[in-house]
Each structure stands twice: as C-alpha cells, then as structure tokens.
Amino acid sequence: MHPTSIELLGAALFGIAVLHTFSTGFFERMAHRHARHAGIWHLLGEVEVVFGFWAMVLVLFMFFISGKDDATRYLDTRNFTEPLFVFAIMVIAGTRPILQFAARTVSLMARGLPLTPNVALYVLVLTVVPILGSFVTEPAAMTLAALMLRENFYRHPLSNRLKYLTLGTLFVNVSIGGTLTTFAAPPVLMVANVWGWTVPFMLTTFGWKAVVAIVVNACIAAFWFRKELAAIDSKPEHVDAVPFPMVIVHLAFLVLVVMFSHHPAVFLGAFLFFLGIAQAYGRYQDPLILKEALLVAFFLGGLVVLGGQQGWWLEPLLLGLNENAVFYGTAALTAITDNAALTYLASQVQGLSPQFQVALVAGAVTGGGLTIIANAPNPAGAAILREGFDDGAIRAELLLLGALLPTIVAAGAFRIL
After folding, report:
1. Dihedrals φ, ψ of 393, to 5°?
2. What is the pTM of this model?
3. pLDDT digits over 51-100, tens only?
4. Which of 2-16, 262-276, 306-320, 394-408 shows the lowest mean pLDDT across its residues?
5. Rounded to whole angstroms, how far apart are CA atoms 83 and 81?
6. Distance CA 167, CA 170 (A)
7. Are 319 and 399 contained in the same domain?
8. In terms of domains, do 104 and 49 share one?
9. Same domain assignment for residues 39 and 118
10. CA dist 263 → 79, 142, 206, 270 (Å)
11. What is the residue range of 328's domain?
12. In the listed set 76, 107, 134, which residue is the last one of a domain according to the structure?
C-alpha cells in the first residue's frame, strides 16, 4: 500500500525534527550572536520544544490539505496519556519531601559501601534509582536520579566527558531498569498484555540481565572518573527537614498516580489535589518544576502526533528482519524514534515468534539511551540536567558518544547472558 501525501509529509517532518534535535546547540549560539531575536533562537534551541513545534507544523498542513474534520479526528485518536502522566509524575517526584526521602535513603546505603562518599553516592544513584524505576515507573526514577545528580554533581564544575558519560549511563540504565515488571517501561507496557507477559517472565527473561548491566555501567563510569568525583566538594546546602507525615502524604500521592497511570481522569484529579496540598504547605516545598514538566509533556505530545504517521515505513522495516537483526535493528531505530512506538507497532502484528518478541523488546530498551527521543523519560532527565552543560544545551552527538559504551554493555547482557 502506497503512503498518503500526509504520511509522506509526516515522515519528512519527523526527519527534520530528528535533525533539529542534533542542532539545538547551534540555535543557542545564534541566540547569543543575535540578541535582537534571541527569544526565537532560544525557543528553537529548547530540545523539549522540537517535536511539539514540528507536530504543530504537521497539524497546520493537515488542516489545509485534509480539512478541519480530518485533522481534528486525527488528533482525537491520538493517545496523550503518557505525556500527561509524565508531567504529573515529574512534578510530584521533584518535590522537596520526595527528594529528601530518596536522598537520605541513598545516603544511608552509601555508608555501607567501601568507597569514598561521592563515588558511593554516584554509584547508587546510577544503580538503585534506575532499578527502582521498575516499581515507581521510569519517568519517576529518571526525575529522582536527575535531580540528585544535579544537586550533588552537576552544580559543580565537571569535565564534559564526565557529564556526557554520566548522562548516557543514566539514560541507558533507566531504559533497561524498568524491565523487572510489566508496567514501568513504556516499550514493555505496549506489548505485555498483548503477548501475555507476566512479572515472573520479565524477571527471568529481562530483569536480572538488566540489573547486571546497570551495575556494570555504573561501576565503569565511577571507576573511570573516581578521582574527579572524589575531588568534588559536595557539602549539601542546608534545608529545613520535612516532617515525616508530610513525606508520607507525598509518597501516597506518588503511589496513587503510579497506580492509575493509565487512567488520566484519575491521576490528573489526584494531581490537582496534590497541587492544593503543596500550596497549603508551601513552607515544606521548593518551587515546583512545572516549567520543566510542561516542556517534557509538550515534547512527548509532539512525538505522539508525529509518530502516528510513521507506521507505513517502520512496520515493514521491522518485519523484514530476523531474530538477531531485529535486536540490533530495533536498537538502532530507537535512536531516531521513541522505543515504545516500535514495540507498539510490533504488538499489532500477528504470528510473531516468542524469540522475535523478546529480541525486539530487548533491542528497544537497549537503545533507549542513545538520544533524547529514544525513550520517553529521557526528556525529563535532559530538562533537569541541561543547565549543567555548556550554553545550557545538550549536544546530541556527544550524548550519543556518552551512551555508546553503556549501550554495548546492555546489548552484551541481553544477548550473551
């Protein structure tokens, strides 16, 4: 079946958006050179704006080419649950009570490791928090880990190599860290019910291998930069302790949103109630990360709109691969499109062998750290950490290099173990 003009346009705009993500540093430099129009250059330099911007272009073309009814019908048939969920979970997970609770828990664990305090904390943030993502969802784990890295490391002068290897390791570890359960990782969630996967199946097929890769990745990064990490003066800033009942309330909201993550009417209602509590007890809060969360939701919403026009070339491409090729092919394709989109397309195809199914999902999560668009939680981490990078922009090619070694380790774990 030949693609329609809208599908061709959607593929072209998707390609432009991918190239745009690799060019955000250029737009930031333009903002500094041309102060008169710095606002528009800064806007185009926001990586979270990229897919939302080009999705808007697609929708405008659809209005002109297909008419209002077809354009609005297309938008009405898109599922925006994930962007809304990521927005809510980012704001709640980024609050002072949740962060203090997570930081104290990790600090207590760090005392038991035979490492310098900074290195121990670094290792635990890159291991325990991503694995926790299998239970609190990957977006929540990404938010917690990124905020802890920002407060303890990225607010200090760091080498570019450390910043990009850490970011790449974080993205890869979170992507594979959600595979211990069936509900935490978006690419697994898309296929678990359709293919009859259970939590025991995930643990034996993916989970233990993911844990091995996560530990190895974190230890490699920590060993490589142990001297630089140890030299950081990481004395925490003094903040008033949050009463334990307030921590319990925040944890309850976090659990509630996670439990009803597929029901926007429920988790958004809970989120609005949470905002009221946060406002009423503002003395226990830092400023909520509403801007960062909205930008990430905008990014993911744009990906949903543009991604809906890519099935005509993605599906035949995937189905033309054998079991080994599908693992590496999916890992590579994930770099230019959301990994959940790949597994969703595969879930619609009948007759796939169990080996093909496992290889496809393993490839999808393995490649989830190569770019910001590869895995849904990545924009959340990028939005939180980007101020620690030159010009406040994360260079896509350096992120790719930083994620390469952790990706190879993850691939080895899933294909060899």
Report:
1. -130, 140
2. 0.82
3. 889 999 999 999 999 999 999 999 999 989 888 988 898 889 888 898 88
4. 306-320
5. 6
6. 5
7. yes
8. no
9. no
10. 11, 21, 27, 11
11. 81-416
12. 76
